[in-house]
Amino acid sequence: MLANYLEGINARGVILASGSVGRAKLCTQMGLRYEIIKSGFAEDADWRSFSSPEEYAMFNARQKLAQIDSDKIIIAADTIISLDNKVYEKPADKAEAMQMMRDFSGRTHKLITALVVKGLTYSEHLETTELTVNELDEETVEAIGNTPSEWKDHSGGYSIDLKLGCTIFNKVNGCFYNIIGLPISSLSKILLKEHKEHLRVQALKNN
After folding, report:
1. pTM (two decimals)
2. Which one of the listed residues 44, 69, 71, 78 is annotated catalytic?
3. In the chain, what are the domain boundaries?
4. For 58-68, what is each residue's pLDDT tens digit?
5. Right CATH number for 2-206 from 3.40.50.720, 3.40.440.10, 3.90.1150.10, 3.90.950.10?
6. Is 78 tagged catalytic?
7. Which long-range contacts (CB under 8 A, 24 or more apart) does 19-27 make?
C-alpha cells in the first residue's frame, strides 16, 4: 500500500511537471509532497499526424517529462478528449466551445490520460475513462458558452468539477480521478514499484 511508503517517496523528492490545479490537488490528496515545475514543451504537435489519440497523448507526456532534468521522481501527464478518433483540444473561443458541446451531446466520448513517471525506474501508462453526455438543449449549450470559466483552458471545453460541467453527464465508466487529471490508483502502483526499486538499490549498496 502506497501510504506505508509515502515518507520514503517524499524524502527523495517529487516533481509534478504540470501547471494543472486538478493534478496538484490529486497529488496533495494522495499525500505526496511535491514541487511544481512546468514543462517548457510547447504542445504544438498536430494530433492528425499520429496514428491514434492515445499515441498523441503519450507523445505529449513524454515530451513534458523530457524537459525536466532531475534525480527526483518526475510525474508528467497529458489528458485529451477524443470522439470518433478526433481529438478535442482546448477551445479557442466561445463558438468552438459550444460546438464541442453539440458534438458531445447524447454521445459517449473518451478522456485519455497518458502518464509518465521517471525515477530509478521508468513507467508509462494510458488510462481511458468513457463519459456519456446527456442530450443537451441549446439553452444549456449557450449557458456553457456564456461562462468562459467553464470551458477556457479545459480540453474538450468542459470541467466536470465546475457548476455547469458537473450537470451534463449521464454516465462515467472508468477512473473518476482520471477526469480531474490523474489516474491516482495507477499512479500509486507506479510509485510503489519505483519505491521498491529504490529499496532494492539501497540494500545492494549497504551489502
Report:
1. 0.93
2. 78
3. 2-206
4. 999 999 999 99
5. 3.90.950.10
6. yes
7. 20/77, 20/181, 22/161, 22/180, 22/181, 22/182, 23/77, 23/180, 23/181, 23/182, 25/180, 26/177, 26/180, 26/181, 26/182, 26/184, 27/75, 27/182
